[in-house]
Every structure is written in C-alpha cells, then in structure tokens.
Amino acid sequence: MGSKQQYIAASVALVVCSLAFSRTWFQIIAFAVCWSLIYKRKQVVRIWKTLPRDLRFVKDAAHFLALMRYYQFKNCTIIDLFHRQLEKQPDKKILKHLETSWTYQELEDYSNRVANYFQKQGIKRGDTVCLFMEGCPEYVAIWLGFCKLGAATALINTNLRQATLTHSINVVAGKHIIYGAELTDALKEIAGSVSDAKYYGLKGNRPDNHGRTLLEGSIPLDANLLEASKEPQPAAELKKTKITDKFLYIYTSGTTGMPKAAIMTYIRAMFMFHGPHILLHMSEDDVVYTPLPLYHTAGGILGICQALCMGCTVVIKTKFSVSNFWTDCAKYKCTVAQYIGEMCRYLLAGPVKPEETQHNVRLIVGNGLRAQIWEQFVKRFNIKQVGEFYGATESNCNIINADNTVGAVGFIPWFVKPIYSATLIRVDPDTSEPLRDERGLCIPCKEGEPGLLIGLINNRKAESAFHGYADKKASESKILQDVFAKGQSAFNSGDILICDELGYFYFKDRTGDTFRWRGENVATSEVEAVISNVIQLNDAVVYGVEINNVEGKAGMAAVVDPEKKVDLKQLAEGIKKSLPTYARPLFLRIMENVNLTATFKLKKTELVADGFNPAKISDPLYFADLKTGEFQPLTQQVYDDIQSGKIRL
C-alpha cells in the first residue's frame, strides 16, 4: 500500500473512531482495529485463519520445550526415563515381536546382563561398539545395556555389504561387533577388512536362526548373556552419563555416496521422540506399529522410545509387508502406525482387504506421504490423522504437521518464525549454492518462494544443536557460514521447500535432484508423483541427463514395470495432461526394478551416470517425439543424432 493509500486509510479509521466512540482509550483501541482491517487486512485474515492452530501449537510447544529444559537442568537421560517407567509399571508389556512380548522388567534384566558381560570384556565409558542385527527386542536391550556403561552403539544398516559395510564399521573405529546369526554371511564377505575386531554372535528367539552357524572365531553371545549377572549398574556410575553424551551412531541412507555416521546424543534423541508424542497427543495407552528398520531414527528412536520412555507398547515388525500391514495392526490392536518414504504408495497399490478398515489405527506418523495420494490414502484406510513431519537424523530444522493439512510437512506460526531455527534461503538452482547479498550474507525467501531449508545452529539448545558426524570433514561440509550475520552458522538440509502465507511448509525436491531445462527449474519429486499415478502407483524415478552442446539437463524417467503392463501411449497422454512442457521427461527407461534405500527412498546416482546411451543400458529406452509427445524406441542412431545436433531439442 502506497503512502497516499495509507493516508486515506488512516483518515477513514480516525473519522470512524471519532464518530463511534467518546472515550479516548476506546477511540485508540478502535483506531488500531480499524487501521489493521484496512491497512493490514491480509495479515489480519492470516491471523484469523491460523489462530486456533497456533494457540494449540503454543500450548503444546511450551509444554514440550519446558520439559526439555527440565531434562537439561536435571541431567535426565533416556536411562532415567526408562527407570521411571520401570518403577511405575514393571510388568507392562511394551515390546511385541513375532509371538513374544517383553515387559519393562525383562528389558531391564536383559540390558543389565549385556552391561555386566561386556564390562568384563573391557567395554568402558566412551567406547564404541557396532550392532549389526535385524529388528527384535534383543536389539533394543543391547544398545540400552551399552548406555548403562556409558558406551556408544553404532547401528549398522543390515542391507550393507562388502565395501560399504566395512566403511560403516571403520568410520566409527568399531572393535566390538555384535551381530545376529541371520547376517553371518555378510560378515564372512568382509573377513579381514576390519582389523583387530572381536565378533559376538546372537541367535536370540528367531526360529530361523537356530540352525545357523556363527562366524568362525566369534563368541556365542546367547549362552554368555544367560550366565551374566542381571544386577543393575551402581547408581553413581549411571549418573556419570551426561545428557549431552553421544549414545548412538545412526547412519544416513547413502543415497549420494558412502553412509555417514550421524552422532546421536541423549538430548537430541529425547527431543525427537517427545516432539511427536506431545504435539500429536499420543498417550501411554497407545500401541505403536513399527514396520521400520531399528537402525534408523524413525523406527529406532521415534518408535522404540515411545515404549522405553513414554509408556506405550511398540509392535516390532522386522520387515515392511504390504500384505501384513493392516492384518498386523488389527491383530495387535494398534492405535498408531509408522510409515516412511514410499510405503503409503505401496499400500495403496495393494489389493483391497477387510482388515484395511477393521483396525483401531487413528494416527499414522512419518514422512514421505505425497500430496497427490494423501486424501486417497486416508479415505481408503479410514485414518483420522496424519502426523507428517520433516527432519533428518542429524538435522536441527524439524517441523511437524499436527493439524492434518494435506501435503504439508509442517508449519511454523508467523510469530514464532523470528525465533525458530528453521528457515528458507534463496539458492542458485544450477550450483545449489546459497545466493548472497552485497554484504555476503544469505537472502531469506519470501512467502511462496522455493528455497533451501536451513537450521540456524545454537548448540546450547536441543532444538537447534548440530552434532554432526563421526567424520569431521563430513560435518563441516553440511555447515553454512555467515548466514544472516557474520559468524552465524547453519545446517544445510539439502532440501528445497516452500512456505505459504499461512506458515505451512511443503517439500519440493532435493537440491541435487532439481535440474534446469528450458530456463525453468524442474522438481523431480513432482514429476515422479505424476508418473507414478499414471502407471498405477509403480516406482518411477526422474532425473536430469546432459546432452552435448545443450544448456541445462533434459528430463529422463526410469519406470519399474516387471510385468510389461505400462501403456506408453497412456503414459504420454498423462504426462502431457498434467505437466508443463519443460517438466515433461524426454527420455524413458523401462526397468524390472530400481534400487531403494532401507527407508524406501529411490536411488538415482547410478541412473544419472548411465544417462540415456543405448550402448550402456540393456533396458528398453524411449524418446518422446517432439511433435506428438508419444514415446518412440531410442535407437543408437537416434541417440547419435541427438548428441550431434541433427535432432534439435
């Protein structure tokens, strides 16, 4: 509003107030209200729309942050929270797996045996051990036992093999490796690659492990733990553990290289599992279904610690299964279920079955539910609330969608933004580097403008601390300097988000995945969602490929179609109908499968390296006809003509 309009607005407001009210203070209040309605109408409307949401958030967030400050003041760790629940309800069944159930007391006894046995093996405060085992109650009890010794546990991804497995062990200097018998063969492959390591094999309660042999030279853990004392560690020793100590290493998914070992401190973990519990109004009566790997944050911290520290019961499922998901939820009377990545799409693609609505699940919690299938998912499966959140293991920029807004990964009230660590900055779409002003500082995004999500670092507060990785160079590479002031630092999430006028955040893409074509930025996640919907929710990966002497990158889609059911004409029509010209993939690759991380994220690195050269790729390749948009076979001759410029794009 210009100065002339402001003058008119003020005059009108003054006249209205003078005529309507006689008392001076009434006139002042009325003037302020009238001024706001005329001059700040947009802001007033925004406040009115979000007021109920924001008041609930302030109430819950105040409780949450007060609790965190109390824990910091009292030096209260996960061990203390676990012992509180143990004293309160020792016989409550909190972990369920297969046909077994574990109570607080059973978990306490087993973890004490772990602590006492490994103390005799020389494990002491500050040491690091590696845990390589599929999800089960023993898994939780083992790392809890090491917590009682003040040692840290590196949770190794059970899908890793050979070089990446060796790297994950060596990067934390792990000399004691505890493994499940089901993974013996994986360790045989790297025998000799990890020097001076001691191996401990566990068969546990898994029926399929009983006939398996352990790695040659490893120590059988089942019998040794059975003989170990279940006496608790002295209280004075437990109190030596600080809330700022690291107790776990949790590895990144490795979508762009070798997995990085993120440092997990007690206060960081407590922040992560208290947040959803409080903001989504969970209670100790909840039964949580966790079909996620326990070596990642979502299952291993957000899920498991609802049982350890918050009084809930958690059902552990070793592997996610479309056919068993709702059957399990009904069987165990689950009220909360976790999801991640593409799991929701896989469930939607599955056949209809009675159990999918005959359950007690009121809330699903996770990240990765795409906006395009959100409403279809909650309607089909009768879900009352979706707790979609944004956050990575090492990230200090965490937000959560606590009010069911479709597609949003979270929100920040307008009055909280100035003091909140998470914010968006402008970034160069080609280099992924932050844009800076004449002072060399980052430029904040406006409402509705896509930008890089960062988290301003303040290591004195749990919500904004960044503890980094075991590799110091990897930690430094994630930190931006001189953000909004000289000397100010921030965590670089690597993700592009957008924030609307109501404070809702929406995920757009990874900085490395977004590419530029025809002068426009192409968000691969949006194109993937469109293609996936057209091909009946099958996997689809979109990425940019380089063409000789052509600016930018052309779009290419890799589609999973093992049964050869994809109708190329229908696909072309769906793409043309739903996407602007610049976002439509020019190249298509039909695959039998695509690599996924354990958190159901699509791997693109190898696909990008392959490009669209038929000489390198055995899968069927297609090229979108420039006139009709229909996909035609991409032969070596067509490829050569594109690269030489005979076919102009």
Q: What's the arrangement of secondary structure elements?
A:
Elements: H1 3-20, H2 24-39, H3 41-74, H4 78-88, E1 93-97, E2 100-103, H5 104-120, E3 128-132, H6 137-147, E4 152-155, H7 162-170, E5 176-180, H8 184-188, E6 198-202, E7 219-220, H9 221-227, H10 235-238, E8 246-251, E9 261-265, H11 266-279, E10 287-290, H12 297-308, E11 313-316, H13 322-331, E12 336-340, H14 343-349, E13 363-367, H15 371-381, E14 385-390, E15 399-400, E16 410-411, E17 422-425, E18 451-456, H16 472-477, E19 479-481, E20 489-499, E21 504-510, E22 515-517, E23 520-522, H17 524-534, E24 540-545, E25 554-560, H18 568-578, E26 587-591, H19 605-610, E27 621-624, E28 631-633, H20 636-644
Parallel strand pairs: 1-11, 3-4, 3-5, 4-8, 5-6, 6-7, 10-11, 10-12, 12-13, 13-14, 25-26
Antiparallel strand pairs: 1-2, 8-9, 14-15, 16-21, 17-18, 18-20, 19-20, 20-21, 22-23, 24-25, 26-27, 27-28
Helix pairs in contact: 1-2, 2-3, 3-11, 5-6, 5-9, 11-12
Structure write-up:
The protein has an eight-stranded mixed beta sheet. It has a seven-stranded mixed beta sheet with strand order 7-6-5-3-4-8-9. Strands 16, 17, 18, 19, 20 and 21 form a six-stranded antiparallel beta sheet that branches. The protein has 649 residues and is of the alpha/beta class. Helix content is 35%, strand content 20%.
